[in-house]
Design brief:
alpha+beta; Dipeptide-binding Protein, domain 3; D-Maltodextrin-Binding Protein, domain 2; 2 domains; seven-stranded mixed beta sheet; six-stranded antiparallel beta sheet; 26% helix; globular
Amino acid sequence: MEHTLCGLCTHRRLRRRRRVLVGVVGVVVGALALGGATVSASGAASTASVGGGVLKWAANLSGTAASVVALDPAQGLSTGADVAWQLPVYDSLLHTRPDGSFAPGLATSATLVDPKTITVELRQGVKFQDGSPFNADAVKAGIERNMNAPQRGQFRAPLLTVSSIDVTGPYALRINFAQPVGGAFYPLLAGQDTFIMSPTAVAAKSLDELAKAPVGAGPFKVASYTPGQQIELVRNPDYWDARDVRLGGITFIQSEGGPTTVNALAAGTVDFATNLSVTDAEAVAKRGSVKVSYKPLDNSALWFPVCKAKPPFDDARVRQALNYALDREAINKAVLDGRGAPQWALWPETSVNFPKDLKGHFAYNLAKARKLLKAAGYAKGFKTSMLPINGVTAAAQVAEIAQEQWRKIGVDVEIRQTSDFVGDLYVRNQAPIGQPGIGKISGPYQTGSLGDLCKYDNPKINAIVTQLSAVAPGSKEAVKLWSQAQHIVVGDALSVWAVFAPATAVWNTALKGVRLVPSVYGYTLDLWNRATTLK
């Protein structure tokens, strides 16, 4: 008898190659209250100005009819795709740190008062690049502008859960939610969802003008934009924290990756690039005077969703057997040159949300796999099929390796191709679209979600998803809930997990003091690291 196993998936949203900002909430400058999360700071704005060299950043600026470069956050088409050039122009209410925690930015504090309320205190004395005041009225108008813009995928879903925003003082706001989802919204305070355009500019300029010459409150201003070729940013001398931003400017230069970016980095015509393939990053390292960073990315996993409603995969022992029969270390070496990391749970080992006791839970063990199949009534194995996500080379490679490895326990897998991956997988249950954060569990395992393959229903998981939406990411409560969720998901082998792919960053050695911070689709440069300079 033949069964459809799953689709082999990359736990990423389908998107263009430009990728950049998210993190996990924690408290860096301030305190973590048990009743909620608070990021806070005190101190006056910096007035000193320290300039440095102009960073040449390789990026895909090509754009298409369905995927354009957006300098105005409200006019984007893909979540996080434009953060690399938007963040320097707008700054963010909270800054993301290397460990994924949050630090004060344009907001001096942000507090999750309760699951339906977040209060924000803004930094005083800040001005937009046109001289208008950055205050509570401006922030309220900016967030509402983003909410009311045509929603084309540029913002994350929690943005539209805001029911109202109250201005409680010249520099104070209260963000209200009809449902207890404040914890899910909190990370948006560090992303393009809450980047604020100057209300004065919005009133005076057309959308086309704002798309080419936006006005934010960030450390850099748009000097010129040549579509498909270059975005030139120059220092904003009036930026509130000019002293801590040491770069003299940033020029984003069109480079679609692959040999073009490799050659540019090796020749020194660009200084910095992110999200190269492992092969390309290693090629640059061999040719040029560069440094390379490889970091496992939590929302870039190669994994197998499984239809748990149909035999033989309705038996947890079968799913566990497939997990034990998958040699993750071998996959990592063969597909990612050993630069990735085995996936033991929903989060990588480097995350605060990873339960340490799950490390190696499904370590490669053919004897255990055969024993479990025998106990489930499949001592001689069975035939099945899988649908790898189309267009992703690594997914095809992992599918072929898994096919060979599972053959050792008697599971004969046919690899099928489809031009309608989502339809075949979710509608016809023959062949997911991954998300960072809470989407790791709500996407594939919450009853009724698009990713809920074959209508899997687990009230315990549904309850945990609800609770996670109500607490601050990174808080003690959230870590505890993630542990509970992953022990259920991994214990019952609700999927088969392979590896976390690495995010890469490459830079020339003339760029000093590089510090990377996590983003939605990789890692990006921490502009607020005082040690970051360019000769």
